[in-house]
Amino acid sequence: MCGIVGVVGSKNAKNILLNGLHKLEYRGYDSAGIMISSEEGMYVTKTAGRVAELEALVSDREDNGTGIGHTRWATHGEPTENNAHPHLSKSGRYGLVHNGVIENFEWLRETYLSDVKLNGDTDSEIIVEVVDYFSKQGLSTLAAFTKMLQEVKGSYALALIDVTDDSKIYLAKNKSPLLVGLADGYNLVGSDAMAMINETDRFVEIMDGEKIVLTANEMVILNQDNQEITRDFYVAEIDANDTEKGLYPHYMLKEIDEQPAVMRTLVQEYVTPNGESTIDSDIIEEMAKSDRIYIVGCGTSWHAGLVGQKMIEKLTNIPVEVHLASEMGYDMPILSKNPFFIFLTQSGETADSRQVLVKINELNLPTLTITNVKGSTLSREATYTLLLHAGPEIAVASTKAYTSQITVMLFLAKALGEKLGQQKAKELDVVHELGIVASAMESLVADKDHYAALSEKFLLDSRNAFYIGRGLDYAVSLEGALKLKEISYIQAEGFAAGELKHGTIALIEDGTPVVALISNEEMGSHTRGNIKEVESRGAKTLVVALEGLEKETDDIVLPHVHQLVTPLVTVIPLQLLAYYASLQRDLDVDKPRNLAKSVTVE
Ligand code: M6R
Predict the structure, then answer these.
(1) Count of structural domains, the chain
(2) Which among 202, 229, 244 is the end of a domain?
(3) 398: Cβ below 6 Å to ligand 1?
(4) Residue with the nearest Cα to atom 12 of ligand 1?
(5) Phi, psi at 189, each rounded to 5°
(6) Best mutation site among 599, 601, 602 for ligand 1, i.e. most ligand atoms within 8 A of its Cβ?
(7) Are residues 440 and 524 in the same domain?
């Protein structure tokens, strides 16, 4: 979704902004722009295209050290140059970038701007004009900014520059992420740490409802009552090199390949050399008191939740429900007496998930966020946090975050099951099993030519594809289908294999690709029957089977791993098939159309 970057007080402002915008590209966007101060005044450059196109357009005037940049993911108004940010007020006094959605933009326009002819169709342009309006009433810039914030309803992260004083940037946020970066002799702002990571590793969180006046050497934080408050910075654990592709053609391929290493890192993070869990005992005690666990997430995180559900139920005997955040936010199920909530979110910023968290917090119930981003909104607002330690995931298509979410839930299930005296949990040697998983992943990712060839054979000319499986294989089928559709634009759906004959089989015709997963002996034998059913109706099948359950004709044989962790290996070929399907169609693997990495609007 939209990305903000800003800098105040650096002679290298233009490069910092452009680098920051490149780093924000992974979030997904359709237009971009920057505004930079110079001796001759502010200059604004925008494009309805990529950051590389913006870079070519930006003038090489010497800059004066202050500027704001933006990548826009259209919500109100088409992705045109006019609608791209920054928006300069008609008077030329104020420039602004905005992420989020202003809900009362029509009221603001009618109330304050009836005589202003706007350039574009965005809600964001309206708020910069409202600041200008209050300033013309005689208010100082800070007072005009504050007054605008009192009038605005909706979600926002904002950075505003007063052209008459480029020594300051004014910031505010509500429900959309925004972070200040502290550098030596200059300061920065960004939607996430990634935008600033080449400049600093020291960050200060901004809370909803606060305003910031940022200068080269100072950060003044004003709370909702306009009182000045202080807050310490934290040091981010991101290595700037982790955010580079290195020799890889795409981030997605790099991130797929990183999965064995992530498994090993997770073992080090979550288990002591003596085999003890490092998970905070408060989390386990709180969970042990619960009579039902609710897992909440979206997209790939929801799919990981479906796997986590089975792991937790099997190892702890506590019932688990998995909910789509976008549904749960508006349709809360009847909750058990002692519920415990797990929020799964790679970014920690997903608006749908946060909406549920806010409601659960109002009920004063215990919550745990499992996220890849330390200090993210869902991490801050939950009772507890566990980190994925996967390193930055840049490709829009989530891969290593999915496998690390499953792995963290496995550690959690094991620790909880042991606490509850569950035999299965005691017997499971997670470190040993994950060691086998890491080696299995290694051998799978080493076989890339095989997946490229399979993708060409099965998917190159296809308009649709089905993924089927039972039990954990069904959960992975959903993820495999999502990976394929989001980056190859082939319509792909995952199904419980036994459900096909209740409707979907009507879609099977000559040449329809069906990917079938078999990782469990009993359920797999039934899936074999479903494979026969679709083959006899013309489907071409691609069978992925666990070693020991394979047949000679199967296309992919997975190294044998423990039953409970099969999703960690079953998903690897599906990620690679999706990658090659996208590549072979000459598509933008890392930045698929219409999608955003961090979905910060509902
Ligand atoms: O950051 P989150 O895990 O909360 O994001 C949720 C989904 O938007 C995300 O998992 C999405 O489905 C994947 N990027 C798809 O690969």
Answers:
(1) 3
(2) 244
(3) yes
(4) 299
(5) -140, 150
(6) 599
(7) no
Per the confidence metrics, is the pTM higher than 0.85? no
Q: Quick one: 456 and 386 in the same domain?
A: no
Domain of 481: which CATH number?
3.40.50.10490
pLDDT (tens digit per residue) in 411-432: 999 999 999 999 999 999 999 9
* Closest to 229 in 3D by CA, of 254, 211, 244, 249: 211
The DSSP line for 487-512 is HH--EEEEEEGGGGGGTGGGG--TT-
pLDDT at residue number 314 = 97
The answer on 461 and 441 residing in a single domain is no
Q: 216 falls in which pLDDT band (50, 70, 90)?
A: very high
436 CA to centre of ligand 1 in angstroms: 27
Reading the block at residue 77, the tokens are 């108004």
Q: Determine the atom of ligand 1 nearest the C-alpha atom of 483.
A: 16
pLDDT at 41 over 90: no
Q: Give the Å distance between the CA of 299 and the centre of ligand 1.
A: 5
Separation CA 293–CA 360 (nearest Å): 13
State the residue for tokens 């200090």.
Answer: 375
**Does the C-beta of 405 come closer than 6 Å to ligand 1?**
no
For the stretch 382-412, pLDDT in tens is 999 999 999 999 999 999 999 999 999 999 9
Q: End of a domain among 185, 218, 244?
A: 244
For 463-479, write each residue's pLDDT tens digit: 999 999 999 999 999 99
Range of the domain at 542: 447-602
Q: Are residues 155 and 273 in the same domain?
A: no
Cβ–Cβ < 8 Å for 397, 583: no
Are 265 and 357 members of one domain? yes
Handedness of CA 530, 535, 539, 543 (dihedral sign): positive
- Across 550-568, average pLDDT: 96
- Verify that 352 and 283 share a domain, yes or no: yes
Q: Which residues are marked as active site?
A: 2, 597
Report H helices in 332-465.
351-362, 377-381, 400-419, 423-427, 430-445, 448-459
The reply to whether ligand 1 has any atom less than 6 angstroms from the CB of 300 is: yes
User: Cβ(346) to ligand 1 under 6 A?
Assistant: yes
Which residue's CA is the nearest one to ligand 1's atom 11?
299
- Give the CATH number of the domain where residue 151 resides: 3.60.20.10
Residue 599 to residue 349: CA distance in whole angstroms:
7
342 Cα–ligand 1 center, Å: 15
Q: Which atom of ligand 1 lies at the shortest distance from residue 350's CA?
A: 4
441 and 451 both lie in a single domain: no
Q: How far is the CA of 595 from the centre of ligand 1 (A)?
A: 10
pLDDT at position 1: 67
Are residues 363 and 351 both part of a single domain?
yes
Rounded to the nearest whole angstrom, what is the distance from the C-alpha of residue 126 to the centroid of ligand 1?
30
